[in-house]
Amino acid sequence: MQISKAFLGLLESGPSHGYDLKRAYDERFGQDRPLAYGQVYATLQRLLKHGLVELDGIEPGGGPERKRYAITDAGVADVDLWLAQPERPEQYLQTTLYGKVVLALLTGRPAADILDTQRAAHLDAMRELTRRKRDGDLADQLVCDHALFHLEADLRWLELTAARLDGLRAQVTS
């Protein structure tokens, strides 16, 4: 997700400080990868420069001044446009994993071992996501479901590739 679009959407509910935007982002979208403060303020500066947000106030604090940002009409229009556009479906046509399998075959290494190791990593990730889903709220459950469905598709691909290794070996080494 684009951080700038998330910030604009979060600002639609009302003006906010950078710290509060970071906290809201991390709670809703960044549990696995929280934002760095530098990223927050760099993003806000870009939004300000492009006229998508404006300063809504500056408050003195114990440290640096606290700037409050508000979304502009141009920012609302930007969010509207972004929300209306479908995301490009990710097709994963040339994944790193596929490349590893082909290179293993080309170099005489055991490609089946790569697939087995990857299968174990996927299953571990699925167990963790299932635990998180069980303990999470609805938003977390939906995020986990999305990841689990992708991992399930990957597992199907791993099984199919394992079944076709001899044919792939013959094709890439000829």
UniProtKB/TrEMBL annotation:
Give the residue range of the signal peptide: none
Could you tell me which residue ranges the Transcription regulator PadR N-terminal domain spans?
8-77
Which organism was this protein described from?
Patulibacter brassicae
Report which superkingdom the organism of origin falls in.
Answer: Bacteria
Which PANTHER family does UniProt cross-reference here?
A: NEGATIVE TRANSCRIPTION REGULATOR PADR (PTHR43252:SF6), TRANSCRIPTIONAL REGULATOR YQJI (PTHR43252)
InterPro entries given in the database record: Tscrpt_reg_PadR_N (IPR005149), WH-like_DNA-bd_sf (IPR036388), WH_DNA-bd_sf (IPR036390)
**Protein name as annotated:** PadR family transcriptional regulator
